[in-house]
Structure prediction request, 445 residues.
Amino acid sequence: MEDTIAAISTALGVGAISIIRVSGNEAIEIVNKIFDHDLLNVESHTIHYGHIIENNEIIDEVLVSVMRSPRTFTYEDTVEINTHGGIATTNKVLELLILNGARMAEPGEFTKRAFLNGRIDLVEAEGIMNLIEAKSDVSRKLALKQVNGVVSNNIRNLREKIMKLIANIAVNIDYPEYEDILEVTTKEVEEEIIYIESKLNAILSQSNNTSLVLEGLKTVILGRPNVGKSSILNMLLNEEKAIVTDIAGTTRDIVEGTLNLNGVYLKLLDTAGVHEASDKVEEIGINKSLNLIKEADLILLVLDNNSELTDEDKKLLDLTKDKNRIIIVNKIDLDKKLDLEEENVIYISALNKTGLENLRKKIVEMFNLDSINTDMNMFVNANDIAKIKKCLNIIKKIKENIKNIEIDMIDIDLREINDILGSIIGESYDEEILDTVFKNFCLGK
Ligand SMILES: Nc1nc2c(ncn2[C@@H]2O[C@H](COP(=O)(O)OP(=O)(O)OP(=O)(O)O)[C@@H](O)[C@H]2O)c(=O)[nH]1
Ligand SMILES: [Mg+2]
Prediction:
């Protein structure tokens, strides 16, 4: 990493100050070229008042922080320039830095350097991104935990156990003649394996919840026209967000709202009623509704209590049967004409605002939202969840065969588990994985 990188670390726009961050071997030298005071001989971790200068012209009055390696986020020499906010000034200073030898940083490159220089591990790096993107208080706390290495430490502890086991087995295989070496019995191995399995299962069960917490629960309100989808959205949001009329086909495009349920953020999507479209605009809207079925974490399928089940209803019931789904029978203030044999049904009247509590309870119950406990939670991304599942499969295989196979066969499996867990925290990694992790970062982080 020879080159020195620079980027604007604050959000671009009008604000009181912007921070431009510069990191690399030449960070101090480059900033020194455009600053009107000497920075080459200042002490580390000091702040300096002065001006950014181009051809004797003052560009801005700034504060410059100089932080020398290794006590910095990237472990490299780092300079931060606090300029006056505003796009023109900030861009001008960045431009001068680049003219003087810095390179524009890629998204996430500062964090990537922190990782490559050994300051943080991969889980912590992802935690930083999650922290930036946290939308609710629960997700903020969880991300902070990730940044602080709680998740990594748990995985590291498990790896230590596995490595001990591998070492013990190796000694047994290599020195069978030494009597004073404790023989590793199948029973001991089995006990350890069961322990590791239970820990991985615990990580897994908590991870499923928490990835929902982080990303929010994509909740699609679906149904044929006029059943009251938009009324339900408005009721949940306690706001007249979507237009409600008695005309079928009122909602033509997706209407979005967010709801905070037990600290978990629900992204609600009200959709166009699904039926045989009568014009092109409607058709596009309906296709959007149907496409959302695939992406949804939760579907609220709305039926009308005051009408018999139609073919359209049946089609939607079928399309959503394998999804996380709650069926809402709306308009219970009107006569019951609907005959339904389904589970997970909630009865409400959006008009009278009754049944709302039951709906909330049902969602909380369905996703275990009340058991989300930031004190004990782990979380890993979908890719990591898949890796943990893979480890659990290997463990299952070991448990099935342990009585019938030689102990050195287990050794191979244990090494595989160890490698997989290592890849989660980035102790063994490849460039491709790194790129996918860091490309989601914003610029300047
Ligand atoms: N009686 C009664 N009427 C309701 C209830 N909920 C909604 N309505 C009425 O049903 C009609 C349609 O409501 P909307 O919320 O616009 O229905 P929608 O499903 O969004 O309809 P589209 O956008 O056309 O797909 C309106 O006249 C509402 O006032 C209810 O619980 N009881
Ligand atoms: Mg509507």
